[in-house]
Write a structure and sequence with these properties.
This protein is elongated. The longest helix is centred in the middle third of the chain and has 7 residues. By secondary structure, it is mainly β. The relative contact order is 0.20. Strand 13 and strand 14 form a beta hairpin. The protein starts with a strand and ends in a 9-residue tail after the last strand. It has one helix and 24 strands. Strands 1, 10, 11, 12, 15, 16, 17, 18, 19, 20, 21, 22, 23 and 24 form a 14-stranded mixed beta sheet that branches. The protein has a four-stranded antiparallel beta sheet with strand order 3-4-8-7, with no helix packed on it.
Length: 340
């Protein structure tokens, strides 16, 4: 099976106010801190987590008195909480040195009796930036430009338009391509990944009487956090792993139809997402879409064709995949567009 890697980096770009008020990107680059949420401490590895900056002091062994400890200098960390969700997890790792535990009250000299915990684990908390406004595009290792996410108020379907078993918001979607879109819901600053296979409007003109389910696509999307199917086009297709860190799909459709799905929320915290499309049949390649803030429209930024990366003998005479082609798409969060 053949494959190629397309790397994408998720970033934030501030936007001006949309005159039409139809869609508008948010302006915040960092998720706000909410001090009312207390322990437990955990890594803020989800848009559902809220973090509180806090100071702390650790115990260190006294260099002068055996069996006594003193407080280390004050440090700044983060305490995060995720009520009602298991996405936020504690960061647990072996301690660099033996972890110490106080066994009695502090004396007048500032020391406390303490003991070492040789098998202890250290817990750490962080509050990384969340960037969801744009995507740096690298196709086959080559930078192609900076994609802007499509902003909607609160519902990812505003940028997909699922109805009558197909996507209806298909502005500039390419026929016989894997069309990729990134959606940002302004209400919660969440990021969503949408896939639209083909363009049924063009298919109705080009091949309205396609007698077979000739377009076939499978995909596997992996991440370090749970993902959820927000749109299934269509529910009768195959979807596996909803709510886990690995989801899989299988679609088949006529040339004059289209299929797809949306996943979310994705994270703009640098943890990364990988999408592998495989066992592709009658697909020309990948089309990455962007949002034009000047015209408030969805446009195409970068296209990748199998015909440019495979020998003619591996493809159909039309340049389409012949049933065993594959392509890998990686998403990596950052907070600014790459220089291209």
């Amino acid at each position: 099976m053949k494959s190629v890697v397309i790397a994408l980096a998720v970033v934030h770009v501030a936007s001006s106010l949309a005159a039409s008020q139809r869609i508008q990107p948010h302006l915040a680059a960092v998720r706000p801190v909410t001090p009312e949420l207390p322990e437990p401490s955990c890594i803020m590895n989800s848009t559902h987590c809220s973090c509180l900056e806090k100071s702390y002091r650790s115990l260190i062994a006294s260099p002068e008195r055996f069996g006594r400890c003193i407080l280390d200098e004050e440090r700044i960390g983060a305490s995060c909480s995720c009520p009602g969700t298991s996405i936020c997890e504690r960061s647990v790792e072996p301690c660099g040195t033996k972890k110490l535990r106080a066994t009695g009250p502090m004396a007048e000299d500032g020391t406390v009796p303490c003991e070492a915990l040789p098998d202890a684990q250290c817990e750490r908390a962080s509050n990384p930036k969340h960037c969801t406004g744009a995507v740096n595009v690298f196709i086959d290792g080559v930078a192609k430009g900076c994609i802007k996410t499509i902003p909607v108020l609160s519902d990812v379907d505003d940028a997909y338009g699922y109805a009558s078993y197909r996507a209806n918001n298909i502005e500039n979607v390419e026929y016989d391509y894997i069309n990729l879109r990134f959606i940002e819901t302004r209400a919660n600053e969440d990021l969503h990944f949408c896939v639209i296979y083909g363009n049924w409007r063009i298919g109705e003109i080009v091949n309205p009487n396609d007698p077979t389910l000739s377009r076939k696509e499978k995909s596997e999307v992996t991440a370090k956090f749970p993902m959820f199917f927000e749109i299934k086009d269509d529910p009768s297709d195959s979807y596996f792993g909803d709510g886990t860190s690995t989801v899989r799909t299988s679609h088949a459709h006529y040339a004059h139809k289209s299929d797809g799905y949306c996943l979310g929320p994705l994270l703009g915290d640098g943890s990364g997402v990988r999408a592998r499309f495989y066992d592709l049949d009658n697909i020309l390649g990948v089309n990455v879409q962007t949002f034009n803030e000047n015209t408030f429209s969805v446009t195409n930024l970068a296209k990748w064709d199998f015909a440019d990366h495979r020998s003619a003998t591996e493809l159909r005479t039309t340049g389409q995949a012949d049933g065993d082609e594959s392509v890998i798409v990686d998403f990596q969060a950052a907070c600014e567009c790459a220089a291209v």
